[in-house]
Specification:
By secondary structure, the chain is of the alpha/beta class. The protein is 35% helix and 22% strand.
Amino acid sequence: MAFDLVLFGGTGDLVWRKLMPALFQAFRHGTLPAGGRIIGVGRDDLSAEAYRELIRTRFDKVELAKRPSVEEFARFAALLEFVRMDLSRPDDYTRLGAALAERTADTVVMYMATAPTLFTTICEQLAAAGLNTPQTRVVLEKPLGHDLASNRAINDTVRRVFTERQVFRIDHYLGKPAVQNLFALRFGNALFEPLWRREHIANIQITMAEELGVEKRGAFYETTGALRDMVQNHALQLLCAIGMEPPINSHADAIRDEKLKVLRSLKPWTAHTLAQDVIRGQYSAGTVAGATVPGYRDELGVASHSPTETFVALRTEISNWRWAGVPFFIRTGKRLAGRDAHIVVNFRPTPHAIFNSQLGMANRLVINLQPRDGLELHLLAQGQENRRHAQTLAPVQLDLDFDKRFGSERVGAYERLLLDVIDGRLNLFVRSDEQEEAWRWVEPILNHWAADPQGPRPYAAGTWGPSAASAMIARDGFCWAEEA
């Protein structure tokens, strides 16, 4: 299948750090359709050869399972071209159209690896130049807007020139192998479904922790923050995957219909819950991996009295028949004690204890997302080391490492999602009504913070965030996984 993949922002960080390595991996794996072109678009005055050389030098700075040989990269680089464009100039879209007209492609993908403020401009200019053909697909990176109104404005503009089936709103978390296995765990096995409900589950925790700070993205983070950057998209998509009802089939809209129902069932915020069940924090100077690191307000591009949150912890519920009364805890932050993304499903203890075991000890399922990818099932068993206490149970763990089971060079998130765009599969992409519902739920938090003079709570870099996050979950009688 002949395809053209146009990368707006073709010299930017997202392209060389994520998209080009993912496309190269697909090329190496033999899954990138033959007859394709990858066209970088940017302001730089680069020839195709200069662009190929730029990408080659950047490849030395990215993570690849295996470094490409000179010959292997040369074969991949033959797919790369470059078009110089000022995205605000209509005449430059004519230049892009001429490049695309050099041959007939079955599919043309317009990937917007730019600032979200340019999305509407690009879409309108593509339409004005006649480049919104039925063969065209457009990929929109997050964050799509900064609140509900801006999200709607972007979606309304895009829908005027593209149909919903041409729009691929990307959330790279949905492409992670571990998230794919979350769907497989729930809907491909009969084992857990009878237990996947309020009668058997005490609480569910979603953690997305990073050791890194904002690095050189301080100016971007100042206008975004952890709530917009991680909760509104990644965390809520994971919550939907955990909480959704089984779809009637594996078609894109059947899956997305069920996710939408979860978002619409999230318990509305009140003044009380906004004050008690949402914690925001901001990292101060501390120690990470043995090295002293600065606080957020000392990072490049950050205001000296910035109120931007780098940590969020919250408690919510899904108000439906399956989940009524089960608390869902979400936690994400930068400069935390480790790089760790996981989901913990804590099951209720047995209704009547006949064995001796530690107070509060119960079964749990841990779905590891990164850096490990796999499942842990925590059970209780009778050990043999002390026969005098044969009625005492001890924790044991069944551990499935997907990298060891399926091989370490597995299909990465962006690789999977890019191939899905080229093939026209929408299953792992977010529909506009999903996105709007997520913004609708998040917006009261943003409004509450805007009116709250207290600002984010400080926490030392290298810790697990403000102590208030532990106090919040403790009010329900639970604790975060690393505190158990």
